[in-house]
Write a structure and sequence with these properties.
Blueprint: E1 5-9, E2 12-13, H1 19-27, E3 32-37, E4 39-40, E5 51-53, H2 62-71, H3 76-79, H4 83-93, E6 97-101, H5 103-108, H6 110-115, E7 120-124, H7 138-148, E8 151-154, H8 157-165, E9 173-175, E10 199-203, H9 212-225, E11 230-234, H10 240-250, E12 256-260, H11 264-273, E13 276-279, H12 294-301, E14 306-309, H13 314-317, E15 324-327, H14 332-342, H15 346-363, H16 366-383
Parallel strand pairs: 1-3, 1-6, 2-4, 3-5, 6-7, 7-8, 8-9, 10-11, 10-13, 11-12, 13-14, 14-15
Length: 392
Amino acid sequence: MSKPVVASYCTTFLKPEMLHVYRQVSGLRRYETFVMTKERMCEDRYPFEAVELLPRNPRRNFISRFYLKHVRKLPPLYYRNEVAGLVDALKRRNADLMHIYFGHTGVHLLPFIEGWKRPCVVSFHGADVILREDRPDYATNMRTLFGAVPLVLARSHSLAQRLEEIGCPKEKIRLNRTGIPLADFPYTQRLMPADGEWVLAQSCRLIPKKGLRTAFRAFARFRQRYPKARYIVAGEGPMQAELEKLAAELGIAEAVSFTGFLDARGLNELYAQAHLFLHPSEMMEDFNQEGIPNAMLEAMATGLPVAATLHGGIPEAVANEQSGLLVPERSPDALADALERMVESSEYLQIMGRRASESVRAEFEQGSAIARLEDAYDEARALWSPRATVAA
């Protein structure tokens, strides 16, 4: 018996920070999948054969495009002539449903979703819960999207709550954890330094949401007490020059290292030499927030306790006082206090590390997460009922 087919739509497949999407798409078991995308990136990092590359700017007669856009006032999906490519790929691949990654992409595809003869699910991952104030119709279109799909997927309970706040019916929301391949991140027994050579690690995109300014200031205070401590930052992003300048201003430049992007092997090497993992994420003014950071889960799986914030989905993974310490956002002093408290007792730190690893292995194993995702696909297909269609 052939497997059902899900079309995985991701506008760019894949940006470096989209490892969680790759793990889902490549990890399906009961479903076959192919990817529909407008841009292929990082092919060496994210190899995948079944990719339908859709034209980004299909050619269309200028007069026809002007007529569709300005006279008939059709949405971009139509005047850019994207529908034909979608229909062709879905027909050839005999797709049973479509999984659209990221809410803003779902809004873009809304006219097609409303007309297709199959169900769609849309998954939200963090930044895509932002309602775009520069587009007055965006909030309305988002609510229409919620009505057009049988299920909406959220990476964390905090994101699910935000989806409710912006109009998604609670009964449509399903938790969509992105799991961790635990075999790639084995537990490591660490030796605690006797001379204060503590190693703190953080792995993330270098963007404001990750709380890096707070982390740098907290580390500067921590180093006053432990002058041999080091802080290693793995990742890439637009804030690097700013952070290098901040490290110099704080007098910690010689103790801070930027490694750039690391693969699983490189991350394991980093985690093996580290004693603590930092992730003091912050809510942005536009409600851009974390789901549950994958890098944090990977570090925890190896036995690293976490110093982080009461932000987004982080408290869903880090049990305060058990597998780490959680502090308010944007508080360098509170974070520094937590770091100092965590290293006061090597036994306490090791217990926290074991609990961190155990909790990730119990709650975030990749196979279980994939099974729940495929259950959501089953449910979406069962809930969906045919409607009048405009797209074949």
